[in-house]
Amino acid sequence: MPSHLHTMRSYCAGAFIAIPAAALLGAAYPSPSDAPERALVVGRATSGGHPLGGMWILFEGVGAGGHTVASTVEADGSFRMEPGGGEGLSPGEYRVHFLPRRAGVSHPSLDPKYEDPGTSGLEVRIGPGWNEVVFSLPGPDEGPTVVRHRRCQGP
Q1: Are residues 17 and 64 in the same domain?
Q2: Mean pLDDT, the chain, as a whole number?
Q3: Which secondary-structure segment (H or E) carries 23?
Q4: The domain containing residue 23 runs over which residues?
Q5: Do 86 and 148 fall within a single domain?
Q6: Tens of pLDDT along 1-24?
Q7: What is the pTM of this model?
Q8: Measured between alpha carbons, how far is residue 6 from residues 1, 12, 17, 114 in Å?
Q9: 31: burial class by Cβ within 10 Å (0-12, 13-18, 19+)?
């Protein structure tokens, strides 16, 4: 009979460990239906009329629980963040800035203020579905900063 009590204690101890562990893992890794919907974001970035190829574009979520998503800016200035690979953006407000893909090699026509999220002044609101964001930043002649955003709701 003592071995039977030992077995019962082992099962109970295992349950006390397994149940909270499963609950914690479920909160840390939500099921796909619990995960926030990600939006497709495409766009183009130029400075002084020159594409910002060779840079990273970073969208930094504003507020609690905000996350940062980065994409490379291609030679023609285009960028793309697709939800399939986990790189899409959750709908919400974002601060945007750029960083060189190679340390110490900044884009010659980009004002350094656009490399810091605190000084870039670039903010966009991403909605569900498909979003196109175009950044036309001033060059050395200090023209106006233009940010255009277009959103399309899915069917």
Answers
A1: no
A2: 77
A3: helix 2-28
A4: 1-35
A5: yes
A6: 555 555 555 555 544 454 544 544
A7: 0.69
A8: 9, 10, 17, 66
A9: exposed
Largest interatomic CA distance in the chain: 89
Going by C-alpha positions, the residue among 88, 87, 95 that lies closest to residue 127 is 88
Rg (alpha carbons) of the chain, rounded to whole number: 23
CA distance 40 to 90: 9
Q: What is the CATH number of the domain that holds 63?
A: 2.60.40.1120
What six digits make up the tokens of 80? 């793309």
Total structural domains in the chain? 2
Residues 114 and 145 in one domain: yes
Q: Is residue 31 domain-shared with residue 48, that is, in the same domain?
A: no
- Structure-token match 């959103």, residue found: 151
Edge-to-edge strand list for the sheet holding 68-72: 68-72, 55-61, 92-100, 122-126
